[in-house]
Amino acid sequence: MRQAIRFRRRGRIVEVRDFSPRTLLLDYLRLTERSVGTKEGCAEGDCGACTVALGRVRDGRVVYEPVNACILLLGQVDGADVVSVEDLAADGVLHPVQAAMVEHHGSQCGFCTPGIVMSLYTLYREAERPVTREAVNDCLAGNLCRCTGYRPIVDAALAACEGPPADRFLAESETIRADLEGIADGADIFVGDDTRFFAAPASEDALAALYARHPDATLVAGCTDVGLWITKGMAAIDKVIWLGRVAGLDAIEAGPEALTIGATATHSAAHASLGALDPDMGELMRRFGSVQVRASGTVGGNIANGSPIGDLAPALIALGAALELRKGDRVRALPLEEFFLAYRKQDREPGEFVRRVSVNRLGAGDAFRCFKVSKRFDEDISAVMGAFRLALVGRRIASARVAYGGMAATPKRAPETEAMLVGVSLDDPASWEPAFAALAADFQPLDDHRASAAYRRTVARNLLAKALHELATGRTDETRLVGERPALQAAE
Amino acid sequence: MSKPLPATPLPPDEAPLRHVRQPLPHDSAKRHVTGLAQYIDDIREPEGTLHVAIGQSPRARGRLVALDLDAVRAAPGVVRVLTAADIPGKNDVSPAFGDDPMFAADEISFHGQALFAVVATTRDAARRAATLARVETLHEAPRVTVEDALERGESVLPDYSFGRGDAASVIAGAPVRLEGSLRVGGQEHFYLEGQVALAIPGEEGDVHVYSSTQHPTEVQHVVARVLDIPDAFVTCEVRRMGGGFGGKESQATQWAATAALAARITGRPCKLRLDRDDDFKLTGKRHDFRSDWRIGTDETGRILGYEVDHLARCGYSADLSNGVVDRTMFHSDNAYFMPDVRIGSKRLKTNTVSNTAFRGFGGPQGMLVIEHVLDQVAWAMGRDPLDVRYANLYAPGRDVTPYGMSVEETDTLPALMRSLERSSDYRTRREAIRAFNAGSPVIKRGLALTPVKFGISFTLTHLNQAGALVHVYQDGSVHLNHGGTEMGQGLYLKVAQVVAEEFGIAIERVRITATTTAKVPNTAPTAASSGTDLNGMAARIAAGAIRRRMAAHAAETFGVPEDEVVFRDDRVFAGNESLDFGELAKRCVQSRVQLSEAGFYKTPKITWDRAKGTGRPFLYFAYGAACAEVAVDTLTGEYRVTRVDILHDCGRSLNPAIDIGQIEGGFVQGMGWLTTEELVFDGEGRLRTHAPSTYKIPVASDVPADFRVALYPNTNREETIYRSKAVGEPPIMLANSVFCALTDAVRALDPTRPVPLDAPATPEAVLRACEAMRGRPLG
């Protein structure tokens, strides 16, 4: 048992023993360390002004990812190299991304700039060359700039990333790796006492035991939602169990029949394997939150949280997914759709935690489509999310799994619509109509600030129409503004 | 493809210039990228600094019956709670009309309105304590929408109209008559740095206030009014803002005054930084409108008569609504001549936060309406909207605005538009889009080319003045100060370029210093695009006076005529002699030559008689045009802006890099206003989109990958600073092209119907319009 967190900062190992469990990394940087280069823009992980880079060892290499410090608990940096904007330039020499930002007039008011520089730093370090405009846009989706209109920032990024990365952090990477491996002791962390603590168990058994002892504790995976409970809800969270150190809980197993994703696998980590299920899943993950959110947020957290939208859940439900939960020594599994009981209410007992989710692969003759419709393409939550898994025999639908987000208080299947799709011919659009009509029986959406019920109803229908139309024609270039699929899907 | 295109060069300046016209990087660029640029919240707090949070009204309208603050006072870390009763001076933070209480004491006017403030040892403690108040109200149904306000007949200011001739009769007799109504949404500033102030108490009631404000003089004045002390006891200072966009023109005062009151009462430094959600709820936005219009044209679409009534939602108080809605009226013509015209306005009162200045200051709304109307006119007669626009542009003999000002520069805009029409390949693409749409049932493309004509000067004439303070020290370094504030627009750099040019010295020798009311008094806000025009000129006047005294001294010393003394390359040349600029400065000090000067400038020529609705409110107009192409998914209402070409007139640019930055940034901000940025108030008057999670400003991928921006080679015929033109606001309205292009795309579904698209054109609004074209309602 370790009673402190340890991380690397500016070449030194920092050990912090005494901190409030809800201390956020941004407050530690700005108020404790007085490193005020990192800014608070929104305190909810949406604007990116607070972006810092966390370096961790992955497959023997130090990998840097951007995170929103405003909603990341201080305790979550245990084991990481923490790099903030002040650290990039050395001896008066700007980092290549900083120099490019100056040269391309990439800053105006400058307030978003530290966060943008840090996002670009991770792009510079990690992105495959050549770096495309689309890759830069994806990297910047979580960084709002209100002054420049982004063009000079994107140009700066492209210029800085022209060659292979070569900065002083790379030159020191062996030292950094050794430092990080040196503090990775595999011990359980418990800072505080039984009334107020930050805990980070290192094994699943330790987690199960600790959570059984403190079923009132708040489980934190990526903290991309719990962070807002603190900054906006001003919740009195006193007991935190962080899942990020639980060995094996982030495992991703790509089996022949199913893909199994451990609860604490981040969206970034799961992106490639989910994308391998179907190109639409890859596009969905690309548009999920922002790079910062995907680097922190987890697949398990997104499910356990039970958002009525939860961009990922409708797609997984349509694909066919099973959720595994554990409480103490008891493990149980259930179909994912059965986990969501009501608005923000899930089938999860006190002391029980999400262990992993298994997603069925598509078989021969299976077609999949999912569409996210939001006010803004990037870094937004869907107003309507529609996902369709259709088993085709020739040009007819033999069976269907249809799920929507944003149409009810939970992500939900559409049983009436599924029934009406069976037997439908792709070549006979008139035969689709009963399925469209059935959507009205399956869903009674609400008006809210994201969309009206009327819009949701129309879009839900049109997304199904779009899926069927695409399968009928085998093309997506006539129906999509983003996420066009390769034309080989015509074989479906 | 997004690099600016090279502009056709103008003939060279009379004298070769070393700094002016150079694309120098922002003076703080290196500090921005390294995190070393200091904003107010980054200033190292003096020991014992306390933090202030605002206690807010849970209701939008009613009477405050009881305010029980015992739990707030008892909360951990709380030092003091402030209410209206603690204000020694006037409980008013308004810019003009006396109707913005710092803390509501009786009448509650909007949801979230400040009722009290908590002063605590940490910001977290103050925020948590502020939620513990027990607030009892006599609740009344709030008036939220334009229609609510119309029904109640309540305004914050009197109705106002101006015009010419008899528009109603002319429209009635016109060959083509159309009418309609357009809703234009508001906009949250979303400056990345929220509202913040740090107040440090001094001797005898003095207070030094660091405020993120575009208007330090206003902050100074309001703090003094609230504390009941003379203005001279208050100093307001700001080095830079993390964005302003109008949101920190009048509405920074409340937070500065609250921090100052806390500092006065506790005797300790006090800081107030609004949380982002609170900033959304508690500060005003761009005005939203319903504009009811009628137009009569001849058979070619040339305007004969135009009537418009702008129904502005002003919120609960006047704030700057007088000037804002006036500017909507001034820009209701955009670039078009209207022989008979009546422009009316109502400044409606609602139980929502008081709307305020936002880049463009009402102009964009008035201009969007007429662009929308001309689209309708063009389609009604089967013409290309661009041709109808050309037919209506101001021209010799058709050159007087509805408010009686002559448009003297009628040649620039037609030439600029023709040039853009060619460079954007408008006609070819128009045909290509027609062909594409014919074969594409789901995705429809749209194209539009729209002009901008924007009047430059504060329409409140007395604001058109500026001061600067320049010192030359004996080592030849220069201290530069002026009344303008830096919010990212590069004003400090542009003025420094002017001063370095004046002295012929390296720009590094000019030390840019924070704006403070202690150095330059009685300043105008940095607003109305006027920052460079006014402060650049004031600084040049100050520097010029010092240079002339230095030249006289050099002339006397070296026995040459004064006009033969040349300041160049950091040296001063007098006949065969030359010496370093610093050496001359040292000699001047030793010879008792004054090396400090306060410059003052006021804009010439402008007049405005509001009662008569006539005059010359603007010194000149800035021009531009944009051509936007979009693709719309008619099944979901989603869209992409695929290409944008812009040609914009900055006169002779002082700094092309800075100006391109203003154009691109302004365009994207305007695009956000007209597309994804949606302010949703519920029936209880609560703002539901109060954070970036729900309020969507453009991100990098929303900017067209094909974005071609160029400066139009032009010169300002007025004697502005180096013949440049103001560039802060006009580019916002280049984004009208995006709205018109979206309308054009939707129209492809059925060219026989008018497109019922309002702004912002969110995907939902676009789909609603698409469904209407298909003859059915949404849902």
TrEMBL record, chain A:
Record-linked InterPro entries: 2Fe-2S-bd, 2Fe-2S-bd_dom_sf, 2Fe-2S_ferredoxin-like_sf, 2Fe-2S_ferredoxin-type, 2Fe2S_fd_BS, Ald_Oxase/xanthine_DH-like, Beta-grasp_dom_sf, Biotin_carboxylation_dom
Molecular function via GO: 2 iron, 2 sulfur cluster binding; ATP binding; FAD binding; iron ion binding; ligase activity; xanthine dehydrogenase activity
Swiss-Prot/TrEMBL keywords: ATP-binding, FAD, Flavoprotein, Iron, Ligase, Metal-binding, Nucleotide-binding, Oxidoreductase
Source superkingdom: Bacteria
Domain 2Fe-2S ferredoxin-type: residue ranges: 3-88
CDD domains for this protein: fer2
Leader peptide range in chain numbering: none
NCBIfam families on file: xanthine_xdhA
Protein name: Xanthine dehydrogenase small subunit
Source species: Salinarimonas soli
Classification lineage: Bacteria, Pseudomonadati, Pseudomonadota, Alphaproteobacteria, Hyphomicrobiales
Designated gene of the protein: xdhA
TrEMBL record, chain B:
Keyword line: 2Fe-2S, Iron, Iron-sulfur, Metal-binding, Molybdenum, Oxidoreductase
Residue ranges constituting the Aldehyde oxidase/xanthine dehydrogenase a/b hammerhead domain according to the UniProt record: 34-142
A single MF term (Gene Ontology): 2 iron, 2 sulfur cluster binding
InterPro entries: Ald_Oxase/Xan_DH_a/b, Ald_Oxase/Xan_DH_a/b_sf, Ald_Oxase/xanthine_DH-like, AldOxase/xan_DH_MoCoBD1, AldOxase/xan_DH_MoCoBD2, AldOxase/xan_DH_Mopterin-bd_sf, Xanthine_DH_Mopterin-bd_su
Group of enzyme by EC: oxidoreductase
UniProt-annotated stretches for the region Disordered: 1-28
Pfam family, one: Ald_Xan_dh_C
Coiled-coil annotated spans: none
SUPFAM superfamilies: CO dehydrogenase molybdoprotein N-domain-like, Molybdenum cofactor-binding domain
Biased composition range(s): Pro residues: 1-14
EC id: 1.17.1.4
Entry cofactors: Mo-molybdopterin; Mo-molybdopterin cytosine dinucleotide; FAD; [2Fe-2S] cluster
Family from the record: Belongs to the xanthine dehydrogenase family.
Record-given protein name: Xanthine dehydrogenase molybdopterin binding subunit
Organism: Salinarimonas soli
Biological classification of the source: Bacteria, Pseudomonadati, Pseudomonadota, Alphaproteobacteria, Hyphomicrobiales
